[in-house]
């Protein structure tokens, strides 16, 4: 094996079989609250995990939703509420990574995205927007 700094080492197959976990494989699914999922993320340490969350909507996305709205969408109360929810919803993002830092007072965690090579691979995950996290062979999903 070789890490991101170029250090190489050998691991016996039995150690890999018994001790290593995959970020996207799980043997159990648990329905939990978002608070519990955030706790799992904050306590992940250097475990590799997969987290699915809703990204923040971009101004372009909001503008596209508003441009495609009909006059009815703005005048009818139910349609206006549906449009507002649609505008405020960001795209879904799945990230494989490990925790670098948790900012409890901001409600976010800084995560190293392992699917992006190089040094510019830090991403923020908003704890309030987590839908699912797979960690330590358990998939935690929102109730």
State the share of residues found in helices, binned by percent. Answer: 25-40%
From the 3D structure, determine the CATH topology of the largest domain.
SH3 type barrels
Measured between the Cα atoms of the first and last residue, the distance is: 38 Å
Would you state the CATH class of the largest domain? Mainly Beta
| Rg estimate, integer Å | 19 Å
Spans with pLDDT under 50 lasting ≥5 residues?
none
* Overall strand count: 7
If helices are DSSP runs of H or I spanning 4 or more residues, what is the number of helices?
Answer: 5
Strand arrangement within the widest β-sheet reads: 1-7-6-2-3-4-5
Q: How much beta, percentage-wise?
A: 25-35%
Q: What shape does the CA trace take?
A: elongated
Number of domains: 2
Largest sheet: 7 strands, mixed
Secondary-structure arrangement, i.e. CATH architecture of the largest domain: Roll
List the helices and strands in order: HEHEHHHEEEEE
Describe the structure.
It is a single chain. With 143 residues, the chain is of the alpha+beta class. The chain folds into 2 domains: 86 residues, SH3 type barrels (Roll), CATH 2.30.30; 34 residues, no CATH class. 29% of the residues lie in helices and 31% in strands. The chain contains 5 helices and 7 strands, in the order H-E-H-E-H-H-H-E-E-E-E-E. It has a 7-stranded mixed β-sheet with strand order 1-7-6-2-3-4-5, with helices on one face. Strand 4 and strand 5 form a beta hairpin. Helix 3 packs antiparallel against helix 5. The longest helix has 12 residues. The radius of gyration is 19 Å and the shape is elongated. It starts with 12 loop residues before the first helix and ends with a strand. The mean pLDDT is 89.
């Amino acid at each position: 094996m070789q890490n991101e700094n170029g250090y190489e080492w050998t691991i016996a197959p039995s150690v890999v079989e018994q001790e290593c976990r995959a970020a996207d494989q799980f043997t159990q699914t648990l329905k939990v609250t978002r608070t519990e999922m955030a706790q799992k993320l904050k306590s992940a340490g250097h475990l590799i995990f997969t987290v699915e969350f809703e990204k923040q909507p971009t101004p372009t996305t909001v503008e596209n939703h508003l441009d495609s709205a009909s006059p009815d969408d703005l005048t009818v109360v139910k349609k206006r509420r549906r449009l507002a929810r649609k505008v405020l919803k960001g795209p879904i993002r799945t990230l494989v990574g490990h925790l670098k830092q948790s900012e409890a007072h901001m409600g976010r965690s800084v995560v190293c995205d392992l699917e992006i090579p190089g040094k510019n691979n830090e991403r923020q995950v908003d704890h309030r927007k987590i839908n699912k996290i797979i960690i330590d062979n358990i998939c935690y999903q929102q109730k």
